[in-house]
Design goal:
2 copies of one chain form a homodimer. Chain A is mainly alpha-helical. Chain A has helices at residues 5-30, 34-45, 51-57, 62-74, 96-118, 122-145; strands at 49-50, 78-82, 90-94. In chain A, strand 2 (78-82) and strand 3 form a beta hairpin. Chain A binds a DNA duplex through helix 4.
Chain lengths: 149, 149
DNA sequence: GGAGGATTGTTAGCGTTGCTAACGATCTTC
DNA sequence: GAAGATCGTTAGCAACGCTAACAATCCTCC
């Protein structure tokens, strides 16, 4: 119970790495990679977004996002549309298929994890829940402190 | 407070992704990528390891680990040595430089995260700690359920 | 209203990571 | 000793991440 932030930070980092490695396999199974799924998720839930904004949200440089969006568009999951007011912007819209695939992908990807979560007893699940909430706080504080846009 | 494992699993996944994206930048700053750092960490702490075992630990296929080890070796962080008893095996040893660099890298990488952790109040820090502990449980349960060896 | 600078997205090109398939070398078993 | 299993490597593919350089568009300011 030592208040050792370094150790805690390190454990958290390691746990996050291994968690994602597990989940990557599920992503592979459904045929959409983690970065694409994550970007698609933003587009679906945060409505139409410009490419640059999407890149910033995903903590990625614009060229990278250009390619991800191109991939999503080729699969018919999103649309590119020129902004009516500003010709430089391209708005990324989710297609119906995009929403469908996202739902399916989430379900599939989360299934393994959800199963493991479900196996936890009530107390642990509650602990995990508040831990995740703190983690989100942590993320947004780091985002602010290191040049956002 | 709804007992919705799917939602919780999804939030966890998203939070983990964004956390690692933050930390990747720190890895870049020190000049060693996350996969290499993670592999090096195993070699340092788990003593000499065969390549195959290292690959399994890192949840990666052997060819991938071959390349990672080659990179580490080129930087003088690990050594390859033939096993005395079994000519097929190659034991991966950490060098003194490897240990040094690992320590430095960990410190640096964890610094940002530790700073954010430190900014949390006591209660949240405690919540995070128990959350991480549950997360570790989660990981090992997933590892067991999907063919580990 | 037009010139110059800023912003946005794209293309080009590089390095790393992940995979599968195929192969040589070595051990093990019969 | 021959046949099969195991281990690591090589070869070749696709996806991600980056920086640098560019075209198009907007904005500012004279």
């Amino acid at each position: 119970m030592s208040p050792n932030p370094e150790k805690l930070a390190d454990q958290l980092h390691s746990a996050a790495i291994h968690l994602l490695r597990h989940l990557r396999r599920e992503d592979d199974a459904i045929g959409i990679s983690a970065p694409r799924l994550s970007a698609l998720s933003v587009v679906v839930f945060a409505g139409p977004v410009t490419l640059g904004r999407l890149a910033a949200t995903e903590q990625v440089k614009p060229p990278t996002m250009t390619r991800i969006v191109t991939g999503l568009e080729k699969d018919g999951l999103v649309d590119r549309r020129d902004d009516a007011n500003d010709g430089r912007l391209t708005q990324i819209h989710a297609t119906a298929k995009g929403r469908r695939v996202l739902a399916a992908g989430r379900a599939r990807r989360v299934a393994t994890l959800a199963a493991a979560v479900q196996a936890l007893d009530k107390r642990r699940r509650r602990e995990l829940r508040s831990g995740v909430r703190v983690l989100e706080t942590l993320n947004s504080s780091m985002r602010e402190s290191s040049g956002d846009r």
